[in-house]
Amino acid sequence: MGQKPAKAVLAGLVLLHAGLLIWALGTAELLLGEVPWTPVTNPLFPPLMLAGHWLSVLYTSIVFLLGTLYRWPLTPPAVVAGYGAMALVCLIETTQFLVHDGRWLAMALEYAAYIAITFFLFGSAAMRDYFGRTANT
Questions:
Q1: Helix or strand or coil: residue 112?
Q2: Any stretches that span the bilayer, and where are they (predicted)?
Q3: How far is CA 51 from the centre of its chain?
Q4: Contact 77, 121 (CB under 8 A)
Q5: Mind listing the pLDDT tens digit for each residue in 117-129?
Q6: Contacts of 125 (CB under 8 A, 6+ apart)
Q7: Is the pLDDT of residue 1 over 80?
Q8: Phi-psi region of 46 (alpha: psi -120 to 50; beta: other; left: phi over 0)
Q9: What is the DSSP letter of 44?
Q10: Whole-angstrom Cα distance, residue 8 to residue 71?
Q11: Is 137 a residue whose pLDDT tops 60?
Q12: Which of 61, 90, 95, 97 has its CA 20 to 30 Å from the CA of residue 69?
């Protein structure tokens, strides 16, 4: 992938993670109980599950956005760690709490997105250049 397409994908990922950061305002629902917006927290999840859910989303979105802004070389592995936490939360939510018919497809699509973004962050020469990493780091 060339520089221009890679930058376009990176811009899309910045928008995606900015959206995740806004969505992670759901953390306030957990902390405050009552918020001035329509709650986005799933009432099926217990407080500890919600804490893992919101904190993993908050961590991942902040690390991606700040890491990209400052071209932090450890952004790709730090983001993948966040995706790992989010994937674990998704697995627990899907197998233990969710009951809708589309839960398995939703989990598969979420995992596919994490894998695709991981391959992009580590496999793209443009991203290795952007974050100042070599092919081996």
A1: helix
A2: 44-66, 78-99, 111-131
A3: 15
A4: no
A5: 999 999 999 999 9
A6: 1, 135
A7: no
A8: beta
A9: T
A10: 16
A11: no
A12: 90
Structure tokens at 4: 């221009």
For 15, counting Cβ atoms within 10 Å of its Cβ (0-12 exposed, 13-18 middle, 19+ buried), the class is: exposed
Token pair in block for residue 120? 């992009």
Number of C-alpha atoms within 13 angstroms, CB side, residue 95? 7
User: How many residues are given for the chain?
Assistant: 137
C-beta separation of 23 from 35 below 8 A: no
Q: Tokens for 104, please give them.
A: 């398995």
| pLDDT category of residue 3 using cuts at 50, 70 and 90 | confident
Q: Retrieve residue 89's tokens.
A: 């939360």
pLDDT digits (tens, 9 = 90+) for 5-25: 999 999 999 999 999 999 988
